[in-house]
Design brief:
Elements: H1 2-11, E1 20-26, E2 30-36, E3 43-48, E4 51-52, E5 55-56, H2 61-81, E6 90-93, E7 100-104, H3 117-134, E8 144-150, E9 153-158, H4 162-172, H5 176-182, H6 186-205, E10 210-214, E11 222-225, E12 228-231, E13 236-240, H7 241-258, H8 274-289, H9 293-318, H10 324-330, H11 333-349
Antiparallel strand pairs: 1-2, 2-3, 3-7, 4-5, 6-7, 8-9, 8-13, 10-13, 11-12
InterPro entries: Kinase-like_dom_sf
Protein name: Aminoglycoside phosphotransferase domain-containing protein
Amino acid sequence: MKARIEAALQLAGLGKNGLQVSYLAEGAWHEAYLISTTETGPLVVRFPKPFSYGKPFVYNERELRAEYGGRGLYYRLANGVSEGICPPYYTYYVSPELSFTIETYSGPVMSLAAADEAEVARWGAQCGRFFRNMDQVSVELEGFGFLDWKAGKLAGDHQQDFRAYWAEDTEGYLETWERLQRAGYGGEAAVVKRMLEEIVPFRLRRTPRLSLTNRDVSPENLIICEAGVRLIDPVPIVYDGFAFAGNVLNNFNTLFPSFHRSPRYERHRFDRYRPLLRAFADGFLEGYAQGDPEMVYALRVEQYLMLLDLTCDHIGLLEREMTEEAMLRYGDKAAVEERIPVYIAALEQFRLS
């Protein structure tokens, strides 16, 4: 591994004198190493894992440039909004022989075990304020959606009229209650239907705004230091910022604490930290909305739709054979089936304000 890291440093134009290497962590797709030399401060180098979700790594230049280049773009815009919230140094390289990223080491990830609710709520509020400010920044990319690499530059993977897409996507929710009804949740589906009859017209009236937002905010990629919260390893997406602020609320309130039987998340045992995760979400909502009741309502609408999507996704998993990747992400069918009533109850009890 040291030879690979030395090769990466050379390709990045960094010296290797006095190189020190220690294993740091692994995520779903990459393994990370903490390194330092006599010429640099602490850095993190990431390499693609040989296997992810049961599948071998296959080099794809377009996908890697979209992922690595998109992360660099997000870091640059984010640091322009809030200096130092993301690593200030970042570079990447892709080739069939060696692909990697190198960035400034930001510190250890969030430790829920060492935190209290008030502290976590402050972290959430800082993150919410940053998200709100980030959503005001215009992004000069063609299209929308997840990032792609086309003709030597980044672009959204959807090249169509966003307003038309938004309207079609929103109107599609009017039929999702039938999915619950067919799955045997007739009474609950009626409650969901009434909710959708309220929020779909509201969402159609709201004017969505494209920004470079982040789909992947979790305790795994939040760094806590003396200055507050730092963000690493985002999954950038050009989309309406409210939608993915609602995603943060749904993940911390519902998804993370319910995924303790997922191989992807089981080591974190987020189910043991439900009050802390909820405190982060409450702080995030407060930091983003800043006391504006209309904004709270709009964010809760997006949170509800993310919860509804999560529920329907789980119902769909029970209707087909699960792949190895799906089982690593979600757990087996017993784990999936166990979550559905929890999500149904959350949909029934959901309040928009």
